[in-house]
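thread: overnight batch results

M.L. [08:02]
morning all. the overnight job finished for the chain we discussed friday. pasting input first so we're all looking at the same thing
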Amino acid sequence: MTYLRRKILYLIILGLHSGSSVPWRQDGQKACSCYTFENGFTGRKNWQRTSDSCSFNNKHLLVIETIREWEFINKSISERMAVPYNEWHIGLFRNVTTGEWTWINGKPLTIDKWQPLEPETVAYFALNSKQYPPGYYGLFHSIKGYIHRGLICEEETDNCQGVCMYHFKPTTTTSPTTMVDNTLSSTRKGHQEFVGKALVLCSLRVF
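M.L. [08:03]
and the structure it wrote out:
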């Protein structure tokens, strides 16, 4: 293998590890989502005030768009308590124009994690419950706007500190306080196949 082909192969593999040349995430996507939990012990708020509280800190109420993220949050709240009923405000609300349940970032609700017989027709906001009904974990509970609970804020960032879910498999060891989802996704497997093909191309002198 000539120096030029070795150099090209090195750049391909380096791109995989840096997330730049062959993305483990979409262009412009941050490295991870990090979450802040307020458990209601020092002051509970209604949905609008919790949304404002997150926005004040350049974050937003929790948005759950995938089963992977729902499982991550479910595990996180299983290790916490919130008053009075182990429930947290999340960024899910009923659009008054369309009547559809929508995330605060404008995207539609695509995962069905409602508690039995919900959502209620007279409710316009949602909570995430730790365990209700008994034996059911991490389900959504529809509420009216005056209900006061804790909250979960979310921030997309490259500074993955605290309770964070990576949007790609990290290459460095994280601190013990950081929760990391190390699931090897199908995208990551595809990149491994890509490296294998690159090796073949180099051996066949395609470059």
